[in-house]
Design goal:
Length: 225
């Protein structure tokens, strides 16, 4: 029997995840990203969500963009996305090998999934390739120096945040900027985001308004081709 490739194992792990509860952030998280999209790219009509998961972002984007497309490695995720975002066009493929012609989209969005890809530079190059000239890309990525993580390591010797996903890369703001700049995207702006959920610890709620930019939970990079 032929052994599974790294990509096949990765796909299988995500199919299992999405056959269960799957992965999602709070709705406020997705609406915040959508607001940034509408602000920086108000004339965009063709939007591609690379790594769309079960389609939560697509579901709210459908109300604002004329044509919404979603791509994910997991068939189980897309099965749920078809119910969540029935007006979006969905494709099953890896983010490192986008099955689209050059310069296909006005706007590309990646909401917290790039850090789970197997080949990040290749995935960024692919997003740049299918983005139209002067089109916009908004990519949300985690910060390895999130302040609560630093405090947890300082006090407990442990990061304090656990991931259920098979792979997760974190980096600093500058490390992410270099990744994007070296692979075809020109950074225009960087926004910080600190999550909000009903389960937030009381200490984090107090700290949140005062967290310095470079110690934020994650960064939203706005780039053009």
């Amino acid at each position: 029997m032929k052994p599974l490739s790294a990509l096949e194992k990765h796909k299988s792990a995500y199919d299992q995840l999405f056959q269960g509860a799957g992965i999602k952030e709070s709705l406020s998280h997705y609406y915040w990203v959508l607001q940034k999209c509408l602000k920086v790219a108000p004339r965009s009509t063709l939007m591609q969500d690379v790594g769309c998961g079960k389609g939560i972002f697509l579901a709210i984007a459908e109300k604002k963009f004329q044509f919404c497309y979603g791509l994910d490695l997991s068939e189980a995720a897309l099965k749920r996305a078809r119910l969540e975002a029935p007006h979006s066009y969905l494709v099953c493929a890896a983010g490192e090998d986008l099955p689209f012609p050059d310069e296909s989209y006005d706007l590309i969005v990646n909401v917290g999934s790039l850090e789970h890809f197997l080949d990040l530079p290749r995935a960024v190059k692919e997003m740049a390739r299918v983005l139209k000239k002067y089109g916009h890309a908004l990519i949300l990525v985690p910060n390895s120096f999130f302040l609560p993580i630093i405090l947890n390591v300082l006090l407990k010797g442990d990061r304090g945040l656990k991931s259920i996903q098979p792979r997760e890369i974190q980096a600093t703001r500058e490390e992410w900027r270099q990744l994007f700049s070296e692979n075809g995207l020109n950074i225009i702006n960087i926004f910080s985001y600190n999550y909000r959920t009903p389960q937030d610890p009381w200490l984090y709620r107090i700290m949140r308004p005062f967290i310095p930019f470079n110690f934020s939970y994650c960064f939203l990079f706005h780039a053009i081709k």
